[in-house]
Structures are given as structure tokens and as C-alpha cells.
Amino acid sequence: MHQLSIWETQSFFRHRDIIIVGSGFVGLWSAYHLKKRYPRKKILMVDGGLIPTGASTRNAGFACFGSVTELIADTLHHGEEQTLEIVEMRFRGLEKINETFSNKQIGFESFGGYELISDSQQIELGVLRSNIDYLNRKLRKIVGTPKAFRLHDSAIKAFGFAGVSHLIENKFEAQLHPGRLCQALLKKVQSMGVTVLSSTTIKNFTHTDQPIRLETSRGITLNSDQLLICTNAFARELLPELDVEPARGQVLVTSPIPGLRFRGTFHFDEGFYYFRNLGERVLLGGARNKAFQEEHTATMETTDLIQGELEKFLRETIIPGASVGIDYRWSGIMGMGGAKMPIVRQIAPGIFCAVRMSGMGVALAPVIGEQIAKMMKT
Length: 378
Ligand SMILES: Cc1cc2nc3c(=O)[nH]c(=O)nc-3n(C[C@H](O)[C@H](O)[C@H](O)COP(=O)(O)OP(=O)(O)OC[C@H]3O[C@@H](n4cnc5c(N)ncnc54)[C@H](O)[C@@H]3O)c2cc1C
Fold this sequence. Notes:
With 378 residues, this protein is α/β, with parallel strands linked by helices. The chain folds into 2 domains: 155 residues, 3-Layer(bba) Sandwich (FAD/NAD(P)-binding domain); 157 residues, D-Amino Acid Oxidase, Chain A, domain 2 (2-Layer Sandwich). It is built from 10 helices and 18 strands. The strands form 3 sheets. Strands 1, 2, 8, 9, 10, 11, 17 and 18 form an 8-stranded mixed β-sheet that branches. Helix 2 links the parallel strand 1 and strand 2. The longest helix has 21 residues. The radius of gyration is 21 Å and the shape is globular. The protein starts with 5 loop residues before the first helix and ends with a helix. Bound molecules: flavin-adenine dinucleotide. Flavin-adenine dinucleotide (FAD) binds next to helix 2, strand 12, strand 16 and helix 10.
């Protein structure tokens, strides 16, 4: 047992009103909204990583709310009402990011987004047009115009893609720098008075009596009146009853490609593949559908199989014929489950969770943070 000095007990490790576990986007936006609502509350945020180490600093930086084939698939699997509700949450989340930070602070760039429809997908033009019309009608109230999506096939040649029969444009989509957004949020919540402890994993907690007691990997016990768990893919380590499974996402980044012919964020195959320009580089991720079983893991590694699939897509479709090196490869872990709607709820008196952001937590987190702050009446 680590022996604490009286000074430590009365300062760094003193009793808090609220402890937040997990300092990814959801933990950070929750801390922000809690502090805005309850400025006098003492809040401590704890993360097992040296920096937030799950998905928030390891994603692709798409500021997006869903592509056409993905939203149509979601409508079929999860219903129209839930799909539209999630789209609205994402759209409002992006607005909140823009209200809170300048473009420069977080590397926000509005190049627009696109979805590639390949020859091999064999989607008839008539079906595509009617899906676009349907979504434009349904999204009109959310985005404020009847034209969220439009066919933009003339750009295929200019962008230099191969094997692509149609391109759908979404001019509301943008890209940002997730590392800078995390840092900016961290700075903001610290300036509001939130204390952040890194490299401290919460092993378990007890809440039979007040205060709630949290056992840490450092042998130190923390205590608080309320607990908020924002550990996303890792949620079942503390809350085994939840429907949250880890899903690994792998990414690669090419070396700079002088004269790269496209700017923007791109989706393919119901969102299973995604790429964007990063200056003159290409960032490409996904292909999880090529090995669902192996990628159902919280191990942060890359594999030859998925990286090979990504490189094949890069060389055959995105920059056909070009010879380019790969400078970065990494993976991050998403939290998925039977439903796409995040789990934002009270677990027991004083215990709350906000987890399961699926593949679009950048946009969702600001709204989720606001929801949970409202729920955690103190
Ligand atoms: C490769 C990849 C690409 C993606 N691309 C996009 C994209 O372009 N756009 C988009 O909107 N979304 C994208 N996502 C999804 C998005 O990144 C996530 O939905 C979002 O970051 C989830 O945030 P979070 O705070 O819920 O979880 P996380 O960022 O995973 O944060 C959870 C934190 O909890 C900590 N933790 C876990 N267990 C414990 C414990 N017991 N004690 C203490 N700390 C603990 C972890 O260290 C971690 O920092 C992508 C994800 C991946 C993996």
C-alpha cells in the first residue's frame, strides 16, 4: 500500500464531488459541460494512459455525420428514427466544436466530404439517386437545406480515382486534428479547475456506502460523491453488464505525395473504408470488415492482413499507379455494440456512464457530454 503524506491526501487525492474515469473526448466534453453547469463542483479526471489512450487521439479526424450507404444500412438495421436521431446528435456536436474552438486551434478544414461508389458494388444509378433524395428529405430539418448530398461524378477524373463509378458529395463534412482537439479540451477543462491524473488505471470501485471508493493501479484509493465512467471500448472492465465490445480500427499514413489531386474526407463501403488528405499525404483507415473476428480486440497493434488490404485499396483505387511510401501505421480501439446509440445512463445511485461511441465519437462527444451533465444533477 502506497503511503500518502497528509499534504497529498489533502490536495491531489482529496475527496471530490465528481470523478470522471477516461479522458478521451467523452470524458473531456463531460468535464467541460459539468464545470459549465456546476462551476463550484470539485472534479477529478483519471486516465490509465500517459495521454488519453483509446480512440480519441488515434482516429482519422473526420468531422462527419454519416455517408449515404452507411445511413441507408443504419436505417435498415436500426430503424429510421434512431438513425436520424444519431445524425442530428453528430451534426449538433460538430456545431458545438466550431462554437468552442477556432479552426486554427484544432486544425479544422472545410474541404467537404465524399462517398465513393465502386464499379464492383454494382449499385444502380436509379437506386443511388432515390437514396440520396430520401436522405436529403429526411436531413433537411437537421442541416437546414434540402441538399446535404449530391452526385458529383465529374470530380472522379479530377481526383484520379480508379474503378469508381459514382461520387456523392457532402459539403458539410470537414476534417480536424484530433490530437490538437484533445489538447485544447484538456487545457480548457484544466483552466476551469478540473484536475487530471494520467497513468492511473481504475481497477474497481465500491459504492455500497458513501463516498464511492475507487481502487487505482497505483495503490491509492480515490473517493467521490459521484462517479462518471467514460471508458468507451474498455467499459466492461468496470461495468461488465454493458453491451460494449472493443473493435480495433487500423490506419496508415503515406509519405507526402507532391501534387496530390484531392482534398477532403472520403468514405467507401458503408464507412468500412475511409481516407482523407493530410496536407499532401493520404491517411487511410478501416478494412475491419475483412477480418471481423481478429479485429474484435482491445490490443493496440497493426496486422499484416488489414494493412495489406488498406495498401491494396490505396494503390488500386485512390492513387493508382503511383509509387508511395508508408510513414505511419497505428491502431485505436472503438466501442461498439448491438445498437448504435451511445449508452448514456445512470447505473446506480451516484454512478453514471457515457460509453459506446461506435465509429463517430468526435462529433458525438460534445452532445453526449451535455446530456450526461444534465443527467448528473448534484
Ligand atoms: C482508427 C479510428 C478511426 C476513427 N475515426 C473517426 C473519425 O474520423 N471521426 C469520428 O467521429 N470518430 C472516429 N473514430 C471514433 C472516435 O475516435 C471515438 O468514437 C471517440 O474517440 C471515443 O471517445 P471516448 O472518449 O468515448 O473513448 P476513448 O478515446 O477511447 O477514451 C477512453 C479513455 O478511457 C481510458 N481508460 C480505459 N479504461 C480505464 C480505466 N479502467 N481507468 C482509467 N482510464 C481508463 C483510456 O485510456 C482512454 O483514454 C475513430 C476511431 C478509431 C479507432
